[in-house]
Amino acid sequence: MLPEITKIRGVHPGAVLSRELRKRGWESKQFALSLGEYPQTINAISKERRGINPALSIKLGHALGTDEEYFMLLQAYYEIEKERKALLKNQQKPDLSKIRNVLFWDTDINKIDWQKQKKAIIRRIFERGNDLEIKEIISFYGRDLIIEEVKTIPQFLPSLAENVEKYLGIHIIPTNEIK
């Protein structure tokens, strides 16, 4: 039985195919020939050197008893994940030499998506950061965006409100304190 796509999104379809062939005790060469494909094609896909095309996805779906689009969807999810990683690698970042790694003790600072996770980053820096770190985050995101984000944080440490007032000149109150 093939795994649910939602559980393996971003995995190369060749890895799933290779695992499935092993589980079933099938040789890739015989399997390829039974599909009317060249053994080299299935071998290259299994070794993640080649992708799946729609025609092959249909053949694999029939042969493995799953939906025709299963492997094509896996391929699409894999391509999206590959592109996401490339974008993340090239994305603009603040000057990390000005930010202590210890602030992000729970993650690898080099793998942070600085746009997608901006609210959490702003919160963390304003609650726990020093003068240099706070100024770097203000420089990176801009004053207006930070003000917009901090106004939507429902609960926070007192240091966040103190730093927002000190560096941005506005007074904020946790929304859970508003009556």
Blueprint (SSEs and pairs):
Elements: H1 5-8, H2 13-24, H3 28-35, H4 39-46, H5 54-64, H6 70-90, H7 118-128, H8 131-141, H9 143-150, H10 158-168
> Got a strand count?
0
- The general outline is elongated
Q: Which segments are poorly predicted (pLDDT under 50) over 5 or more consecutive residues?
A: none
- Give the structural class: mainly alpha
* Distance between the first and last residues' Cα: 54 Å
Give the proportion of residues in helices. 55-70%
Q: Spell the H/E element sequence.
A: HHHHHHHHHH
**Rg, alpha carbons:** 24 Å
Mean pLDDT: 92
Explain this structure.
The chain is mostly helical and 179 residues long. 59% of the residues lie in helices and 0% in strands. It contains 10 helices and no strands. Helix 2 packs across helix 4 (39-46), helix 7 runs antiparallel to helix 8 and helix 7 crosses helix 10 (158-168). The chain is elongated, with a radius of gyration of 24 Å.
List the main descriptive attributes of the protein structure presented here.
179 residues, mainly alpha, single chain
Describe what is shown at a glance.
By secondary structure, this protein is mainly alpha-helical. The protein has helices at 5-8, 13-24, 28-35, 39-46, 54-64, 70-90, 118-128, 131-141, 143-150, 158-168. The mean pLDDT is 92.
